[in-house]
């Protein structure tokens, strides 16, 4: 079965079922990751927590066995294609993205700022209790653009390149980055490998996503924002994605935000209007149209290859 049909099947399952409410495989993987971190994240020689080599070992033990299992199962006759589809379905989060973002937009439209803050707090790691309406809308729009890349497009990319083992490798690596990739005393050394590997796996997909956003929105503005604003962003992959996405939508994002009690002077992203509820919905629609574009490109590629 062609990668285009398998990808379409995985996207369709995500649209129909959404994320599993019970027995989600990533929940079990998170438990495994916590146990590995407790086992391997030990004090360094100078008394600080964490060894880089221990972080590499923990990453290998967490990711490689499951990736090899996905590879072996995908080779099984008769059911290998089903393993491929289920692996992609488990890695995708397109429907979940809408289920988190749209309630924020609805709360803003209803004038319920408290509910909007609560809802957006489920999407982002910044403090949301003091955000005004524009701040809530900026946070939600940024999250849609960035998570569209991480939870949707990058999964499709690695599935198209390497099938089930590729998408499993990517999703587990991305999960470990979310759990271990912090720049703090606990994870600065131990989580170094998880953060760097995730950056590497996202490097090409993120730039394809930025190009996708640009093509489907205000192209010249998106490319200009990508070129001028992305280099100022801390993350080498989130910068292009959010700068191009903000430019494509014609909205102003970025700016200062409070994380864990500390004010971060983030650079501006995009240009145009102040963020509002409508831009959350437009960002989600941009991601959805991008998925259809990618599926079309995969279909054309499969046809030409055949």
Structure report:
With 306 residues, the protein is mainly α. The protein has one domain (3-305). The chain has 11 helices and 4 strands, in the order H-H-H-H-H-H-H-H-H-H-E-E-E-E-H. The strands form 2 sheets. The chain has a two-stranded antiparallel sheet. Helix 1 runs antiparallel to helix 11, helix 4 (80-91) crosses helix 7 (133-180) and helix 8 (192-216) packs antiparallel against helix 9. The longest helix has 48 residues, at 133-180. The protein is globular. The N and C termini lie close together (11 Å). The mean pLDDT is 93. One of its GO terms (molecular function) is ABC-type vitamin B12 transporter activity. One of its GO terms (cellular component) is plasma membrane. Pathway: Cofactor biosynthesis; adenosylcobalamin biosynthesis. It is found in: Cell membrane. The chain crosses the membrane at residues 56-74, 151-170.
Low-confidence stretches: none
In sequence order, what are the helices and strands, one letter per element? HHHHHHHHHHEEEEH
Residue fraction in strands: under 5%
- Radius of gyration over all CA atoms, rounded: 20 Å
Q: Main sheet, how many strands, which sense, barrel?
A: 2 strands, antiparallel
**Overall geometric form:** globular
Helix content: over 70%
Name the strands of the widest sheet in spatial order. Answer: 1-4
Tell me the number of strands. Answer: 4
Structural class, please? Answer: mainly alpha
Q: What is the number of helices?
A: 11
How many separate domains make up the residues?
1
- What's the rounded overall pLDDT mean? 93
Distance between the termini: 11 Å
